[in-house]
Design a protein that fits this description.
There is one protein chain. By secondary structure, this protein is an alpha+beta fold. The chain is built from 9 helices and 6 strands. A hairpin with a 2-residue loop joins strand 1 and strand 2. The C terminus is likely disordered. Strands 1-2-4-3 form a 4-stranded antiparallel sheet. A two-stranded antiparallel sheet has the order 5-6. It starts with 19 loop residues before the first helix and ends in a 20-residue tail after the last helix. The protein folds into 2 domains: 106 residues, no CATH class; 98 residues, no CATH class.
Length: 247
């Protein structure tokens, strides 16, 4: 494989095994590309180009055949608030499908991988998607900053040790499940805990001594048990109140 070369204009030449006709079909994807909350959604109706089929119906049949692995990436037109008789799919779902097709149909593996590369370019190069993503990132950051301020104001004692905050015990807000592991929980109040800076540093230092350990709810519970700290912060362990019925 040749090395990737970047031109003086910051351009990379993409060589493909696809024909001009196959590449032209990709333009139809842009006709019904939907952008919402900084994410792109592709119409199932126009996947025949990316899936390298001659007809739209064949492409829809392929999606149906692999629906079990694609289910979490599929959304309806109603969910997106658009008018369409067809479902939509996240680009990552199409990438996953193309990877499976390359494995299941090795005779066309090169073409499926070339299609995946072109699809990645189309989504990455979409100017409005970049703008929308930037706007959503700013909204999320603003919301998270506000949430952290509210949590710091609400909590007067460390949620692990129970000790009051003060000059020597500054407030830190810790993500129970790391943002890198699950970005969707970055601004989830149930995923945030207010603890002292000392305990925060102690926790991270402890994790670094355990090979393969990750910042997760289970890891924090183990740390709390080991140190004799409170587990009241873990809302996932709250038992439902049983209703007593008198006959």
């Amino acid at each position: 494989m040749q090395r990737i070369v970047l031109s003086n204009n910051n351009e990379i030449v993409l060589k493909t095994t696809l024909s001009k006709g196959q590449v032209a079909k990709f333009n139809s994807l842009l006709n019904e590309l939907v952008l919402k909350n900084g994410a792109a959604y592709l119409s199932i109706r126009h996947l025949h180009g990316a899936l390298l089929t001659r007809s739209k119906d064949t492409a829809k049949s392929i999606v149906q055949a692999y629906r079990d692995i694609l289910r979490i990436y599929l959304v309806t037109a109603d969910e997106l608030g658009v008018r369409s008789e067809h479902d939509f799919i996240r680009p990552i779902g199409v990438q996953l499908l193309l990877d499976h097709l390359a494995t299941d149909r090795p005779q066309r593996a090169s073409d499926y991988r070339a299609s995946a590369a072109l699809l990645t370019y189309i989504v990455a190069a979409h100017p409005q998607l970049a703008v929308d993503s930037s706007i959503e990132a700013k909204k999320l950051a603003s919301f998270k900053d506000g949430l952290i301020k509210r949590l710091k104001s609400r909590h007067k004692v460390c949620q692990l040790t129970g000790k009051p905050f003060g000059k020597d015990h500054e407030k830190h807000v810790h993500h129970i499940v790391a943002e890198a592991i699950n970005p969707a929980l970055a601004a989830d109040e149930d995923n945030l805990i207010v603890i002292t800076g000392v305990v925060h540093d102690e926790y991270h230092a402890w994790i670094n001594t355990i090979p393969g350990a990750e910042i997760s709810r289970a890891t924090l519970r183990n740390f709390a048990r080991l140190k004799g700290y409170s587990l009241d912060w873990d809302k996932s362990m709250v038992k439902p109140v049983q209703q007593v019925i008198n006959f």
